[in-house]
Amino acid sequence: MKTCLNILPVALIMWLGMAAGVANASIMKVDSWSSYDGSHVATFSNTVKTSFEDSIHFSLSRVPFGDRSSSHVKLKHDVGISFDTFELWGDGKFLGYGSKSASDSDSHLSFLGDSNTKDYELRFKGFNNSGTGGYCGEIVVSPVPEPQTYAMLLIGLGLIGFSARRRN
After folding, report:
1. In a domain, 12, yes or no
2. Which structural domain range is residue 120 located in?
3. Is the residue at 11 inside a domain?
4. What is the CATH number of the domain that holds 148?
5. Given 21, 42, 77, 135, which is the most exposed site by the fewest CB atoms within 10 A?
6. pLDDT tier, 18 (very low <50, low <70, confident <90, very high otherwise)
7. Is the pTM of this model over 0.90?
8. SS3 10
9. Percent of the chain at pLDDT above 90?
């Protein structure tokens, strides 16, 4: 009986150590942007084995569109991986949740970049119940036209309509 009492604390410490080692956390930083069809794209990926808490840091100040940019994040994952949360944070403030698609193999998040927020962080929490799997995603940043662009478009359409009406 005394031997069992001596083994119990050691077994408890080993079990707690293994349970603490189950969580997988990684922090990734996106510094590399590539141009594609007038947008700037950054990609990321990670392999996860058990429960995980990952975060991806990126800055829109590295993108040449300035303060006015339309951005979205696409996230695809293997079967067996489920996300508990998919959040966007900017300068330490919560900005929004990502939404899962009907197929449950990808998630999306859209947001507008603004002049007050430069540094962003995507946070993922989830679990892999298939043993081995991963996720990948991309951040796509596109320019948002300035109000002057819309004004010129409306003036141009008005002039075309005026000249067409005048011909008739």
Report:
1. no
2. 25-158
3. no
4. 2.60.120.380
5. 21
6. very low
7. no
8. helix
9. 4
